[in-house]
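Batch 3, record 17
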Amino acid sequence: MLRTKIAGIGKYLPDTIVKNDDLQSVMETSDEWIQERTGIQERRYGTKHQETTTTMAAHAARTAIERAGITPEDIDFILFATLSPDYYFPGCGVLLQRELGITKTTIGAMDIRNQCTGFVYGLATGDQFIRSGMYKNVLVVGAEMHSMGLDYSTRGRNVTVIFGDGAGAVVLQPTGEADQGILCSKLHSDGTHAEKLAFINPGAHGGYHNRYLDEPVEYGYGKETYGGIFLTEKMVEEGMTYPYMDGPFVFKLAVQKFPEVIQEVLQEAGEDVASLDMLVPHQANLRISQFVQRILKLRDDQVWNNIQKYGNTTAASVPIALCEAVENGAIKRGDLVCLAAFGSGFTWGANLLRW
Ligand code: UT7
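Prediction for the assembled complex:
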């Protein structure tokens, strides 16, 4: 039976370490608050004017490609998950193709806009491309340069203290090995509460989505305006161009959906939590991962956490954590591994695989 294996994996974390105390110098927050509520001690920021989401992705991708024993020219398809793309368009997929020096035009490149679940969705999509026989080497990347788009005033503190920059990548290939590869994936979405965790402006909503907000918002559109409403002066002047999150609302749903979808993939594959060698959850908040661990009755050595060092890197968090666990010898050939994520949309999902 043809399955999809992760043939190579890589990660990239930029050099600059931003500690909680560094954030305390620009906004009203404290190391104590951040550690108690999120477990985060520090995060990495990319170098402005030198690094972007794409360049960080390229570092991770080159490592994954090398470890898969291939060259960039062997890549057939790129799946790029990010919420902090270099440009509004074109997407980062084609920018990464260029950055890797892939000149052949027979490949395809696609961007995935699923925020925290982007990598899990990407892995499930790449798996289908491989198993259908359409492609032999699919590059799946999750990368974020959050630091460019955060509100560093006290108003944005609940969001800003959480996020960090980084990238992770895998090369997917077909395998005939019975004890290796992606066993199954489950993907979910519920758009009911889309604005509870969202980066709305700039956007082509034209105010239309106001009817879904708890409070109506005036974006500064002129009555006679036919164009130029994607980004208004009012949005910029009043700092409306930042991510918004109703933290407690998101927290409550996350601790419910993570265990559900993890159980779902285990059940589909005829496995149970006791046989799970490693759960690699999206690093949203250490308290969320600990909650999930308690609900599923997992031991400490069955869950990989690294949010303490890197913060929440959204689409990059799962591949970075998976790569780190593999590099540390915590995941070995044949291990049963579950990747799971929940985030904006809301979307959530999981992949179950034998390493
Ligand atoms: O990865 C995508 C999915 N995202 C998540 O899963 C995040 C889920 N949510 C969370 O992780 C938590 O809700 C947060 C860490 C974001 C916030 O923690 P919380 O315990 O839910 O705090 P809160 O938002 O209820 O705020 C409690 C208090 C408020 O002050 P008042 O109104 O009680 O006076 C906030 O203004 O904490 C205040 N606060 C802060 N204080 C110091 C919020 N952020 C900060 C901060 N430093 N950074």
